[in-house]
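Hi there,

I know you've been waiting on this one. I reran it after we fixed the sequence typo, so this is the corrected version. Both the input and the resulting structure follow.
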Amino acid sequence: MTLAVNKKRCILFLIHTIINRNLYKMKNLKEDIKKTKMENKMNKPPYATPGAADEVLDILRRTTPKKIDSKFVSDNNIATSSNAFRIVEFVKWFGIVDANGNVNENIVNKLKLVGEERNKFIEELIRNTYKELFDRINLEEARKDDIINFFISNYGFGHEKSKIASALFLHLCQKYKIPISDDLKKKTYKSASKIKNDLKKVIKKKDKTLENKKDQNNEGILIKCKISTILEPKTKEEADDIINNQLPSLFNSLKLFLPNKQEEEK
């Protein structure tokens, strides 16, 4: 009888110890994030593209940099120089770095975990950093407009910035198995590969139009330019700029080398 009682006490003690240890870890994690965010004075959520956010988290799985700044971001091809600040804000928001970009080793070391344990840790980061959003919105019943309006109302974001911030947040929720409604699962952004494929189609179409431009004798000149290698958009905004501004200017310039009707008549 005494042996059975002692065995039961040992089991209860072990359960109590495990629970306290997990609570202690969660408390330390929250304190680390809170401390770093206070140092950073970061009170607005990031609006990095989902692909770039995934990339920096993946890099931190493999390496432990001393500092993460715009140079680190561009040198590792995570984002272009002009958009590197978005990733810096992203890692600051999650408490991965302090105001000066110095890495919080406690958090980065946990990002090197593998499997379900790593996913659970990142889920805790998401729930802690976006705590206000989780407290105010039931994600399992919410619509996309609810999330966008939250960023507009609470952080003073414009509509476009709110859409990007929402897309990042919802991407993280889906990737790390945080339950959300079916409406929130619909993608509102394009992946980097999709952007590049769309851009290649535009370039191919414009190349073909230029290639087929002949003079009256059907002997004209052929100008075909290989430009897809120098146009490498990493975000939808950059792709839109290339398609709407850079490409038209480039092809208009190339048309100057084509014979016009007045020259043909001479």
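Quick highlight: Residues 213-217, 225-230 have pLDDT under 50 and may be disordered.

Best,
R. S.
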